[in-house]
UniProtKB/TrEMBL annotation:
Keyword Hydrolase: yes
Protein name: MjaI family restriction endonuclease
Pfam family of the protein (one): RE_MjaI
Species: Candidatus Acididesulfobacter diazotrophicus
Keywords: Endonuclease, Hydrolase, Nuclease
GO MF annotations in UniProt: DNA binding; type II site-specific deoxyribonuclease activity
InterPro entries: Restrct_endonuc_II_MjaI (IPR019068)
Top-level division of the source organism's lineage: Bacteria
One GO-annotated biological process of the protein: DNA restriction-modification system
Length: 240
């Protein structure tokens, strides 16, 4: 007897998906400061139906500000529509002209060079950067922490580069070159990645921190105080 097929509510955009996703990420139109912390909201809601979730969202969703001085605002359906309109303008006025120019200039040599560079050169550069960020920066700043490379067999290995062990608890470190922030408009973790981070936290007890590096140094220096607070919490055995 065939299993009941789970109903899907999300719309398929076909070939348009790539350009919609790229532009949305680049211009930060789906960040928590625009649409709220949606995964946290839906877990809090625990909806029994799509209608439950939709109603809960518009009753409880507020923009999440990264600045304490900035006021959180309630999210409405009209504001989501306005974000969609901004997405359309970005695609039509910026993304399409930029891509058309890139398409005209693209050569076979660009493609072969890119694959080789991505596979060999960037991998090696990234490996050296990771080592330097940990050994020359974090390990010296936090000598009581035992930093270990993520086990390739770890469920979260794709999202966690290093684990910082405090006794039997650990926090995670993801290292991104500063170009990631530039390429994706102040890099925002995807919803899948956020869910992976939450699963890591449940398993190892500590949060995951995204460290941006430039010239083998930590570029987002504010993250260091956040890591320091997390180390103190783990040492004290306090819950989040």
């Amino acid at each position: 007897m065939p299993k009941n097929k789970k109903e899907k509510y999300s719309k398929e955009f076909g070939k348009k998906e790539k350009v919609l996703n790229y532009t949305c990420q680049t211009y930060q139109l789906s960040r928590p400061d625009k649409v709220g912390a949606v995964m946290a909201l839906i877990r809090e809601c625990q909806p029994k139906s799509f209608e439950d979730w939709e109603r809960w969202y518009f009753e409880n969703a507020y923009t999440e500000s990264r600045s304490k001085s900035k006021t959180r605002t309630k999210i409405t359906k009209e504001e989501l529509i306005e974000l969609g309109e901004r997405l359309y303008v970005k695609i039509k006025e910026i993304v399409i002209p930029e891509w058309e120019e890139a398409f005209r200039q693209l050569t076979l040599q660009d493609c072969t060079d890119y694959i080789y560079n991505l596979t060999i050169c960037r991998t090696y550069d990234g490996f050296l950067t990771e080592k330097s960020v940990i050994n020359d920066n974090l390990a010296k700043r936090f000598p009581d922490v035992n930093f270990l490379e993520s086990d390739p067999q770890l469920d979260h290995a794709g999202d966690i580069d290093y684990l910082g062990w405090i006794g039997d608890k650990a926090f995670g470190i993801q290292i991104k070159p500063v170009t990631a922030r530039a390429n994706f408009g102040n890099y925002s973790a995807s919803e899948r990645m956020k869910a992976s981070f939450e699963e890591f936290e449940e398993k190892f007890g500590g949060k995951v921190f995204i460290v941006f590096s430039v010239d083998d140094k930590v570029e987002n220096k504010e993250i260091l105080s956040e890591i320091e607070d997390e180390i103190s919490r783990l040492k004290a055995g306090r819950k989040i």
